[in-house]
Amino acid sequence: MRLHYAAWKPLVLAGTLLAGSALAGEPQPLDALVSAGYYGRYVWRGQNVNDAGVLQTSVSGGAYGFTGSVWANIDLTGDSQFAPGNAGDFSEIDYALDYSRPVPGVPGVGFSAGVIHYLFPNTPAPSTTEIYGGLSLDIPASPTVTWYRDVNAVDGSYLQIAAGHTFETIAGPDSGCRVGLSLGGSLAVAGPGYNRGYFGVDRTGLNDLTIGIGVPLSLRQWSITPSLNLATMLSGEIGDAGFEGKRTNVWFGLEFSKSF
């Protein structure tokens, strides 16, 4: 289970793959990023998957518009309602491949397309696969709209609208050492197949509203980002059917990352 946002994971999301990068011009020959972060809980698309601390790691590399990544969640305690007694074990590993480029002949518009395969080791959940496609605009707040389609276990669609902005320098002596500020949020609606598969609700409805703030400290190619995130399920019927019926969640994160 993975929240996908243009700038961060969970709402640092980190993670990742979406279309904002498509507007940066011609892709560099090779880019790579590794990250590891502690989060006070694991919240995916508004669902409280683990109400206790987790470690989330990722490795990604990209060239010529393609980006491949591996993302993983490790439960740090045995208190997860998704996988009780899973302390120290992986509960999720995601493999993703993305292709992002500017839309030919349309200045300021980018597109992304890709696939994500979800594995849930040490849990009773079956593996599944999503395909997705998205558009992004090179305007203030860099809005994106992304359609996800589960083609395996759930067979449903999830549509997310997201926006955010990063102020690269709000303090710092030079470009090699600076403090920034990242703001972002997303709003999602899901179809009847998705809501039926996850919540037993057979109708289209608003899903989650997620917002976050991060304060990245950049030390040349290293970055340390504390973040504060909030997610709420907008539908009472859907929210009450999620893990432990926790409709609103607030959590803290601290991520370390390095680019190459």
What would your notes on this structure say?
The chain has a single domain, classed as Porin. The chain is built from three helices and 15 strands. With 260 residues, it is mainly beta. Helix content is 7%, strand content 56%.
Write the layout of secondary structure elements.
Blueprint: H1 9-13, E1 31-39, E2 42-44, E3 47-50, E4 54-63, E5 66-75, E6 90-102, E7 109-119, E8 128-137, E9 144-150, E10 157-174, E11 177-190, H2 192-199, E12 205-214, E13 217-219, E14 222-233, H3 236-240, E15 248-259
Antiparallel strand pairs: 1-4, 1-15, 2-3, 4-5, 5-6, 6-7, 7-8, 8-9, 9-10, 10-11, 11-12, 11-13, 12-14, 13-14, 14-15
What helical percentage do the residues reach?
under 10%
Strand content: over 45%
What is the count of distinct domains?
Answer: 1
Structural class: mainly beta
- The number of helical runs is 3
Please give the number of β-strands: 15
CATH architecture: Beta Barrel
The CATH superfamily appears as: monomeric porin ompg
N- and C-termini, Cα separation: 27 Å
CATH topology: Porin
Give the integer mean of the pLDDT values: 86
Order of helices and strands: HEEEEEEEEEEEHEEEHE
Low-confidence parts: 1-22
Q: If you compute it from the alpha carbons, what radius of gyration comes out, rounded to the nearest whole angstrom? A: 18 Å
Biggest β-sheet strands, sense, barrel: 13 strands, antiparallel
Shape: globular
